[in-house]
Give the backbone structure.
Amino acid sequence: MSETAKQTLKKLTHLISDQHDAKSVLYVSPQDGEHPDWDCIKSSGLLGKHFTAHYDLAALDLSEESLSQASVQVATRLRDLLAKRVVICARKEDALYGLGFFEMSLEETGIEPGEYRYWQFNIHDYKQVPDWLNARFWANPQNFNKYRW
C-alpha cells in the first residue's frame, strides 16, 4: 500500500470513529499493522479466525491488490458479521456497488482521495424504509370477519 493511501485511510477512520463515537475499531490490511487504540489483523488471517467481538467500525485496505475472490470474502465478512460500519480503500477501477457499498464523497472532509476510491457500508442507513412499509397498509383489523380470503 502506498503510504499516502494508508495515511488517508487512517485519517478517514479516525474521522468516522470520532463523528460516530466508535468505541471499537478493526483495521484490516495485507501487512501487519499497529495502532494503539484499534485491533489490527492481516486480511489473510481474517477468514480463518472465529471472532466473538462485534466492532463499531472496520477499515479494510485493498489498495495493493485488485479485487479478488478472497478480498470480496473479507469485505462481506466484515459487512455481515463483524462491524456495523465498514470503510474500504480500493483502486479506482474496483467497484463495490454489488456488495452494498456506497462510494464516499471526501469533499467535506478535506481529505484528498488520490488514485484510490473509498467505499462505505453502514447497516443503519443501508436501506431506506419505504413509506408503504407500516401497519396501516398491512393489518386491516376493520376488515376481519367481513371478507373471506
Q: What stands out?
A: The chain has one domain: 3-143. Helices lie at 3-19, 43-46, 69-82. The domain at 3-143 is CATH 3.40.50.150 (Rossmann fold). DSSP finds three helices and six strands in the chain.
